[in-house]
Design goal:
By secondary structure, the chain is an alpha/beta fold. Helix 6 (193-203) packs parallel to helix 7. Strand 9, helix 6 and strand 10 (210-216) form a beta-alpha-beta unit. 17% of the residues are buried. 39% of the residues lie in helices and 24% in strands. The model has no long low-confidence stretch (mean pLDDT 85). The strands form three sheets. It has a nine-stranded mixed β-sheet with strand order 8-7-6-9-10-11-12-13-14.
Length: 292
Amino acid sequence: MRPISAPAAPRRDPAPSRWAYRWHRLWLTPLFRLTVRVFLPLAVMAGAAGLWLADEGRRSALHGIYADLRTEFQNRPEFMVNLVAIEGASPVLAEAIRVGLALNLPRSSFEIDLAAARARVETFDAVERADLRIVTGGVLQVTVTERMPALVWRAPDGVWLVDAGGHKVARISARSLRGDLPLIAGVGAAQAAPEAMALVQAAGPLVPRLRGLVRMGQRRWDLVLDRDQRILLPETNPVRALERLLALDQAEQLLSRDITAVDLRHDRRPTLRLSSGAADTLRQVRLAQTGG
């Protein structure tokens, strides 16, 4: 009799299972691999962080640690401002700027708002422009362009120094403190300061006799000279009218005569106003000529 042998083991099918095939095909998709490798771990981490931060005590502790680290970093010596240096300003203005900035030094540069500090400096009448920056050594450098007084304005609220553009520079107690500057007066005179400067420059030989310029009706100028003489200028082209008068005066010595006013408001009809004495003399001459 033959011996009975064990049955042969079944052969393994090399083909993958349906689920293994689907997983392999899915893994070959770039978006799926990115999701599994990147987005899924991030989502797990975000969820864990959210659960950890859900506790108010943990959030407060984390905020305190952050605040302490930030304060410690900002208060490091290399970030501290210990001095304010002001350039381009007079001593009086420089001291006023220091007081106006109101910086409690030493102070961290992170706590100084340069834009706001610049705006405060430029609120001073005497400051035309300011530039602020923090330089090495813990110094806040303030560079000031100071307005230069060009005229004295006798305004309704007092006597002011104004620059060539009519902007207020400083208030003074009396006009005599700046007798070297031309005087302007009247409502709206400061707004027309550039025109007043042009008239002063055009006045030439009349400048030693010039006592001031008066703004009339916020429209035109009167030039006031010594000997109570006044030149009434037109509303338009006052510089040209003044130049024509100067040419006439050079030829005829007009302003050296006994007159009180020259009215140039009408371009084609200038008018002379005689003093009372000159008017009486002229009247007597005319009577004598007519035999009256």
